[in-house]
Amino acid sequence: MSTDRSIVLFDLFGVIASHQRPGALGKMAARCHTPTDAFTTAYWDCRPPYDAGQQSAPEYWTAVLRRLSLPVDADTIEELRLTDIDSWSRVDDRMISYVQSLRDVAEVALLSNIPSDHADAFLAAQPWLYHLDHVAFSGKIKAAKPAPAAFRHCVVAMRAAPADFLFVDDREENVRAAQATGMNGHVFTGRDELAAVVDIWLPTRRPTGN
Fold first, then answer.
1. Contact 144, 52 (CB under 8 A)
2. Which conformational region is residue 100 in: left (phi greater than 0), alpha (psi within -120 to 50 degrees), or beta?
3. According to the model, what pLDDT value does residue 115 have?
């Protein structure tokens, strides 16, 4: 089923924004006086509930520190939290311009795996996000990709049908998950390739004359 709408649904990190700043995990590990490899493992192993809005920032960082058998104190948690937010703050200005330009020919939305406090910081620093047709952050909607609930949220929130969407993500498993819900999907490798895909997809959404 389709409502004949054209909605380009973007991932954030690895598409519009950069992945984590190089060296950030090493910096946080040094703050904790622990090896980077061990810190990195704890950081990612504890992450899913935080991304999905099931834990607050203090709860997440407490879990990381306890996994590493390190003392837990509010000052350390806040320093790690702010360093972490900063490490995910870089954006691609050319992609932002492209995303904004698409609003002349399609609806544009965002679906990102990002904790709630990170989302608040990102919105404050990137006001262009308020001009999109819908923004869904995993920490706010309580569902993270590739869970089907994350994609269903966008369908319901936009009162659309899955087939109305072209989902763009740099992770193939997320694109496959979107396609399993009935969305169209594209694995992002660069702006020019994406623009070509969108230019082919959009005309298929327009009603043809008699």
1. yes
2. alpha
3. 97
